[in-house]
Task: inverse folding
C-alpha cells in the first residue's frame, strides 16, 4: 500500500502509516504535552500509558490491536508479526515500521493516498465537521458507522469495548476490507 508521508500529523506511530485512527484526546502525561509531531512508540510504552492513564487508554490500544487482527491477512500483514493481538500490541503497535498511527490532529485526507482513515467516535467526527476541520461526504450506514469511499474514511464508535464491541470490530474490519478492495 502507498502510505501517508505527511509530516504535519500529530500523534503516536509510524510516519509511513497505512492505517490511521483519529482520536479527540491524548494521554494526560507530561511527556506528551509538548508533542508536536509523530512519536514512534517503544516497547513497554503502551503498557506505561495504561498504568499512568488508566483503563480507558488500555481499551483504546486493545481495541486498535484487536481491529488489526480482524483484518484480512491477505491484504494486511499485521497478524504475521505476532501470534496474538496482545503480543502485537506490546511489541509492534504504533512503533516504527508498524504502518499504524493514532493521531490527535485533524485528518488530512488525500484521495491519491491509499491510507485508510478511521475517526474514533461519532461525536468527534461531528465536531471536526462543524469546526471546518473535516471536508467529507460521509454516508451514514447506520447509527454507528459512516463511510466516505473516495477519501477512504470511516467513522466508527469510540475505541472502547462497550462502544466498539467485538461484533462491531468485525463490522469495521469488513468496511476496511471494502476500502482496501477498491485498490484492486
Result:
Amino acid at each position: 500500500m502507498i502510505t501517508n508521508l505527511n509530516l504535519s500529523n500529530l500523534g503516536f506511530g509510524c510516519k509511513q502509516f497505512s492505517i490511521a485512527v483519529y482520536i479527540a484526546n491524548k494521554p494526560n502525561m507530561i511527556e506528551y504535552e509538548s508533542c508536536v509531531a509523530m512519536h514512534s512508540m517503544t516497547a513497554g510504552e503502551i503498557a506505561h500509558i495504561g498504568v499512568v492513564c488508566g483503563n480507558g487508554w488500555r481499551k483504546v490500544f486493545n481495541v486498535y490491536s484487536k481491529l488489526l487482527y480482524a483484518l484480512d491477512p491477505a491484504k494486511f500483514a499485521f497478524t504475521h508479526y505476532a501470534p496474538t493481538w496482545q503480543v502485537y500490541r506490546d511489541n509492534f503497535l504504533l512503533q516504527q515500521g508498524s504502518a499504524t498511527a493514532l493521531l490527535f490532529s485533524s485528518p488530512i485526507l488525500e484521495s491519491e493516498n491509499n491510507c485508510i482513515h478511521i475517526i474514533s467516535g461519532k461525536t468527534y467526527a461531528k465536531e471536526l465537521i462543524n469546526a471546518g476541520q473535516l471536508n467529507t461526504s460521509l454516508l451514514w450506514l447506520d447509527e454507528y458507522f459512516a463511510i466516505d469511499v473516495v477519501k477512504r474514511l470511516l467513522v466508527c464508535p469510540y475505541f472502547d469495548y462497550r462502544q466498539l464491541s467485538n461484533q462491531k470490530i468485525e463490522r469495521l474490519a469488513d468496511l476496511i476490507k471494502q476500502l482496501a478492495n477498491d485498490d484492486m
